[in-house]
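Researcher: Please translate sequence to structure tokens.
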Amino acid sequence: MSINVLRADGAWWVQRGDKAARLATDASTTSELLADRKLIEAAVESSGLEFSTDVASLALESPVTTPCRVVAQLVNYRSHAKESGFDPGKLQPTFFRKSSGSVTGPTGEIVKPGHTRLLDYEVELGLVIGAPVPVGTVITDRNIHEYVAGLVVTNDVSARDIQLTKGQFYESKSYPTFTPVGPALTLLEPREFARLQDLRLSLSVDGVLRQDRTAADMIHLPAASLTALARFQALEPGDLVLTGTPGGTALQAPPHAVELIAHFLPTQVKWKVFFDKQAGNPKYLQPGNRVTATIRTGDGAIDLGTQDCRVVAP
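Model: Translation complete:
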């Protein structure tokens, strides 16, 4: 059975329903906590924890501590690929880095920079690395549990006007608060990794559902993606890998006819036309919006919890 671990008030807690019990551990980082996994499992199995604290009373922090590597995968859901104008069958695993300074908690604020107009959301399944992944490691469905300790809800917040004009993923996705993480670090048993495709990712803005797909919509499943990443990138315990977002983001590819016409326009004119049109899209995030995101299986056996963040001005 999966175990949900929370971080609040500088301490680690195990969640059971709407109650939490404090863990007796000196771990200050996610990496140190994962090294104490046997302690966590023993405490849960022996009923040696007192679940008396209301989760709602805790000031939850990201269960992934920083600094750490934050790596994200580009266009990895069929629904998102199609709405972005890509052929899912032709896409190979592609990655970019985010600053770990963008990581924030699951119930805080998303700060919209004053110079960006097109602030977008992307609910993503986050993989938390539990063991060293040297360059050249081959990860399969059979051994993924040896390298991935658990899962988290993440939101890959994106400043699209910066991303598109500069082709700059690192900047457009790395501003402070641009990676809400949590609420829980869900530690899985080895057999539970077979249910990754059953996880449903949902994101709502002000109560209106925007994204809603299971991980079965992924083009490249986590084991294959991690193997591709490990061709060139070593990973360490506590690192975070985001695995792509389903369809439903604010940004949509222009119709084919419009794209053809835009091809003949000067670059500056093309971007002005595009951004003027996008500025009228009400789906982009604005100060005051409330963004909620959940990831869970349909039967609730694996439940990563719900993020609840508000967008604010600087």
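Researcher: Any highlights?
Model: The chain is about 20% helix and 30% strand.
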